[in-house]
Design goal:
The chain has 114 residues and is mostly helical. It is built from three helices and no strands.
Amino acid sequence: MAELPDETITIILELERRLVKLINQAGATELTVFERYGETLVTASALEQLTNIRERATSSYSRLSNLLLRISEFQFIAPPATIELLARTIEQAEATAEAGEATVGEAKSDWNLL
């Protein structure tokens, strides 16, 4: 495996945990809103936002885990471009997690699901 600092691996694994949790929370919130209020003009926007969060979080998780796997297959040193891609992917995953967590929290608050 190409050597990655333990800190980087820990960051990636923590991000994957956050993204999995976000996917679950967005899905559960979406289902609860739908079951309680149905799909109406009022709920349509919230349901769409929650679906989008799940899709973005799933995509971020997939990119992150696939890139980590590819890096683990390199022997000794990963190409600099791959390490740069990993750094950008980590930044994007963090942004996705933060925005998604905030949106799920807002949806729960808006629909009295707290």
